[in-house]
Amino acid sequence: MVDIASVCVFCGSSTPQDTRYREAARALGTLVASKGISLVYGGGRIGMMGALADAALVAGGRVVGVIPTGLFSREVAHTELTELHEVDSMHERKQLMYDLADGFVALPGGLGTLEELAEVTTWSQLGLHAKPVVLLDVDRFWDPLVAQLDRMVAVGLLKPSNRVLIQRASSPEDALASLAAARPPREARWITPRER
């Protein structure tokens, strides 16, 4: 079991035409806040990011955003958050988001969401952290990725023990339950982190 006091949510800054995507972001933000879990995300005020953060704030939640200076200057930063960290680069953004969270949920998103998901799961595979990762599905959005992960296992490019690092949920409630029920991987570390 994992104690989840904060969850990092990956999602896009775009607004899909299908309103179910935005509603899923709102539902997750509301649920996280109602359970007293801190929300960590990319700090934007637009698209699915904004819907997620606004819903958590309206529900009285603690919302922590992390945004690079270049995006902040373009006025996409959400300035009404509990905390907003401005960092120098995308690398620093991801590192701080990962450090602040006990688990990760990926809503449907674009390349940025996919990149964050791949990186944080790779870090788990390498033994740099043991935090759970869950895909939150909307309209079977993640089917192609799940099929690709299974294909990687089938051809011998991904170990089954690493395939299970990415779980899948069909609702915000299931996503949080999956995070809480996760068992940290017991694989040997491939990389030993430097002392800070």
Question: Topology of this structure?
Answer:
Layout: E1 6-10, H1 19-34, E2 38-41, H2 47-58, E3 63-68, H3 69-73, E4 83-87, H4 90-100, E5 103-106, H5 111-125, E6 133-136, H6 143-154, H7 160-163, E7 166-169, H8 172-181
Parallel strand pairs: 1-2, 1-5, 2-3, 3-4, 5-6, 6-7
Helix pairs in contact: 1-2
User: Roughly what is the average pLDDT, rounded to an integer?
Assistant: 91
* Helix-strand topology string: EHEHEHEHEHEHHEH
Fraction in helix: 40-55%
Number of strands: 7
| Biggest sheet statistics | 7 strands, parallel
Sequence stretches where pLDDT stays below 50 over 5 or more residues: none
Structural class: alpha/beta
Count of alpha and pi helical runs: 8
Provide the β-strand percentage band: 15-25%
- Computed Rg: 16 Å
Sheet with the most strands: spatial strand order: 4-3-2-1-5-6-7
Instruction: State the shape.
Output: globular
Span of the ends, CA to CA: 27 Å
Provide a quick synopsis of the model.
The chain is an alpha/beta fold.
Structure overview:
The protein is an alpha/beta fold. The chain is built from eight helices and seven strands, in the order E-H-E-H-E-H-E-H-E-H-E-H-H-E-H. The protein has helices at 19-34, 47-58, 69-73, 90-100, 111-125, 143-154, 160-163, 172-181, and strands at residues 6-10, 38-41, 63-68, 83-87, 103-106, 133-136, 166-169. Strands 4-3-2-1-5-6-7 form a seven-stranded parallel sheet, sandwiched between helices. Strand 2, helix 2 (47-58) and strand 3 (63-68) form a beta-alpha-beta unit. Helix 1 packs parallel to helix 2 (47-58). The longest helix is centred in the N-terminal third of the chain and has 16 residues, at 19-34. The chain is globular and about 45 Å long. 40% of the residues are buried. The mean pLDDT is 91.
